[in-house]
Design a protein that fits this description.
about 50% helix, rod-shaped, alpha+beta, four-stranded antiparallel β-sheet, about 350 residues, single chain, 4 strands
Length: about 350
Amino acid sequence: MGYGYGGWAPYVSVAERRRKAEKAASKAKKAGAELSPVEPGRGAIAKTFWGKAWCNNLEQYSDYSNRLPRGRTYVRNGSVIDLKITAGEVRAQVMGSSLYTVDVSVTAVPDKQWQTIGAGCAGSIDSLVELLQGKLSKGVMEHICKPDTGLFPAPKEIKFKCSCPDWASMCKHVAAVLYGIGARLDLQPELLFSLRRVDAKDLVAQAGAGLPKAKKGPASGKVLDDSALADVFGIEMAAIAAPTNPAVRRSTATATKVTATKAKTSKDVKAPTKPASAKTAKQPAASKPETAKKVALKKPVKEKPPAKASTGSRTSTGKVAVIKTKIKAASKAPKPEAAKATKRAKDK
């Protein structure tokens, strides 16, 4: 392609450049290439925190301030047909008067600088999602985005080259790629950490580094017992280990049970204290057979022989015998009238 006066490429309108970009993208796809274009749009190039922070960082440096505006229109009208970000490197294709290839390399964050960033954010970043969404406190985000000492590269840490014949240190194609990085961070903010060759998880891992450590545990009086925990949360706690002296507890429990059974047995077989009548004395003093069987089943120890009749029963039986003897003697004795009649007959 020939160049006009002064070695400049002929002017290509936006519509013509867009048509060429679409044609080049279609041709690359047919050849099997996978393109990742920066979608065209109006207004701000970057709309999220990390995309805006990237663009603002570039515009702060006077080295780029008068060169970057040349690439904004290229990004907005879809001239960046391919942009891929890998560890420390960006490769892109930009459509101008022809299709140009742009390479941008970014140095890794120095270890000491990365440690300083992590120490400054310790105790403040506890979620990787919040970090990538830029939803952390303003102080933390300013610390990460601070020029020269933060995560974003300074001009001296960026190197680039373009296949176009422009002799400028930063051509409009390179400027378009740098803005395209900001647009890409809107969709994939984690690529910034990959570009600087650091791991965002390192900041999350240091979340508890700034928190004070407890010197001692809680007092014993403030610790809930297992039984209390079971009542509060409605759960079944694990079984407690067996006591060191199980034999003593078992013997005590057995002795208590035997004592209670003996008391109940003696209550069942105990004879009445009141003297029984003659009719009652004829029956045996032992309890009924059914009651005796129940008592025998309940007794865990050897059954004792039935108790003897009480003293009251024997006493009542002796009194009855005396009464019978007196009645018999009285019946044999002669009546007073009969005795008088017999005496009169003898006198006559």
